[in-house]
Amino acid sequence: MTWDRVFQQANYEVFADGEPPRGVLALQRPRRSSAPGFIALHATDVGAAGRLTSVLPQGFTIIHLTEEFSLPLLEARATEFHPKPAWLFRLDPADAVELPDERVRPLDPKWAGQVAALWEPEWPAEEYVRRRIETGPTAAVYDGGRPVAWALTHMVTDRVGIIGMVHVLEAYRRKGLARAVVSAISQDLIRAGKTPALHAYVDNVASLSLFPTLGFRKVRRQVWGDAVFR
């Protein structure tokens, strides 16, 4: 996924260590002062990861690490550090469990504020959520004209679609709605020739139990989180 960010996402600066590269860091600087920066780091060894930390941005930054061994290196450069280990899942089309549900429809961008508020990132996320609704596939179930369950994507390239922001309002849980929206958005990605993938935090028991029932399989542990770099 670092590779996809480097070569298929706009507004990223790219730094590599070695030839051929033993490490790659993709950096997106904040769009405005109130927004976070973002880095995605992949390295094959500690030395490459350490050298790439020299280009870490200052200030509040969202982090994605493909290997956990990079954690101490980044923590040493931070005044605040909040890593969240997560399992990366992928869905091979042959394993996909399709659950046709006539209740599932696309999510209207006017609900970006609600999605952002319930997602609860540590930064103003409504603009980002609206952009993801407008540019990527979405799936939602409505009740009385308002969405009560939804799934979006964080990134779609020519190879992969990263599903995220899956949420069901509390009063509507344990009714199969999460399975319905994740299955629907996965099928949209598969029909478009993409491999669906997603992350689930290691302490999110519900998600870790849900995704395998749809055909997703664990690939590896990675890290998401945020930091304030010096």
Report on this model:
The chain has 230 residues and is an alpha+beta fold. It has 2 domains: 85 residues; 123 residues, Aminopeptidase, CATH 3.40.630.30. The protein is 25% helix and 37% strand. The chain has 7 helices and 11 strands. The protein has an 11-stranded mixed β-sheet with strand order 1-2-3-4-11-5-10-9-8-7-6, with helices on both faces. A hairpin with a 5-residue loop joins strand 1 and strand 2. Helix 4 packs across helix 5. The protein is globular. The mean pLDDT is 93.
Offer a few descriptive terms.
single chain; 230 residues; alpha+beta; Aminopeptidase; 2 domains; eleven-stranded mixed sheet; 7 helices; globular
Question: How would you summarize what this structure contains?
Answer:
The protein is α+β, with helices and mostly antiparallel strands. It has seven helices and eleven strands. The protein is globular and about 50 Å long.
- What sequence of helices (H) and strands (E) makes up the elements? HEEEHEHEEHHEEEHEHE
Q: Bin the strand percentage.
A: 35-45%
The total tally of domains equals 2
Distance from first to last alpha carbon = 26 Å
Total number of helices: 7
What is the assigned CATH homologous superfamily of the largest domain? Gcn5-related N-acetyltransferase (GNAT)
The CATH architecture designation of the largest domain is 3-Layer(aba) Sandwich
Task: State the strand order across the main sheet.
Answer: 1-2-3-4-11-5-10-9-8-7-6
In the CATH hierarchy, what is the class of the largest domain?
Answer: Alpha Beta
Model regions low in confidence, pLDDT < 50 over at least 5 residues: none
Largest sheet: 11 strands, mixed
Mean pLDDT: 93
The general outline is globular
The beta-strand count equals: 11
